[in-house]
Amino acid sequence: MGGCGLKGLVWIVGAGPGDPDLITVKGLRLLSEAHLVVYAGSLINRELLHRCPEGCEVLDSSKMTLAEQVRVMADRALKGLNVVRLHTGDPSLYGAIGEQIRELKALGVECRIVPGVSSLQGAAAALGIEYTVPGGTQTLVCTRLPGRTPVPSKEDLRVYASTGATLALFLSSDMGDEISRLCMEGGLPGDTPAAWVYRATWPDQRVGTAKLRELGQRMKAEHVNRQALIIVGRCVEESGTSLLYDPRFSHMYRKAHDEGPEGGMG
């Protein structure tokens, strides 16, 4: 396996949103050859840990400080052992990996990232939707409301809402009322479709929809206040018709034909 066993290397691996089958082939292969796995506590499906080899050291990062995590990963990596830092979803989205990479680099340890399936994709699959709607929005905004981690003042949800783009809100499950207020202040109608997906792709996954004005009320009634992704936009209930497969549309793999969109498959 490329890079496995190299001295001074830590693999940051996206575990996927919950379903253990959604980890990538490369991520699974790295797990199967790891000497040390540091995983993200209750956010990781523990079934994945069964893919670790016998004798693998497995540590729950929720019980460790950043310094403790970095220390143990650097120690094992500099000894030439295979080290995997297992993150929920995709590490590039709210993964807080930057600080780990900086600290490890300062100790002479290289980090390589293996992408993962995000809850963003898991939620779309659960809802049976696409975020970009032909003839509608072609933009998806991923954001969050301020919590323990502040959000820059220019990144105002009202501004994003004013564009009509699909909005995906992470780490904001307990702020449904605030999301509704800000989006409507940004110009979205109160009857704009909204949805939430709790623990996307996990066995206890739950999905709900509401009009924007009722989002907070509905989520409270369903006792959803954590581990949910919130989607706001017409994509929740609309689907347009893409030109990609329209017989009248040419691209590099296919020439256009004269048949209309009602033409047969051939």
User: Could you name the CATH homologous superfamily of the largest domain?
Assistant: Tetrapyrrole methylase, C-terminal domain
Which fold does the CATH topology of the largest domain refer to? Methyltransferase, Cobalt-precorrin-4 Transmethylase, Domain 2
Structural class of the helix and strand makeup?
alpha/beta
Write down the domain tally. 2
Task: Name the average pLDDT.
Answer: 89
Report how far the terminal alpha carbons are from each other.
Answer: 44 Å
Global shape: elongated
The level-1 CATH class of the largest domain: Alpha Beta
Number of strands: 10
CATH architecture of the largest domain: 2-Layer Sandwich
How much helical structure, as a percent, in the residues?
Answer: 10-25%
Instruction: Give the low-confidence spans.
Output: 240-253, 260-266
Total of helices: 7
Please give the largest β-sheet. 5 strands, parallel
Q: Biggest sheet, strands in spatial order? A: 3-2-4-1-5
Sketch the topology as an H/E string, one letter per element: EHEEHEHEHEHEHEEHE
CA-based gyration radius: 22 Å
What fraction of the residues are assigned to beta strands by DSSP? 15-25%
Family: Belongs to the precorrin methyltransferase family.
Keywords: Cobalamin biosynthesis, Methyltransferase, S-adenosyl-L-methionine, Transferase
Domain Tetrapyrrole methylase: 10-215
Organism: Thermanaerovibrio velox DSM 12556
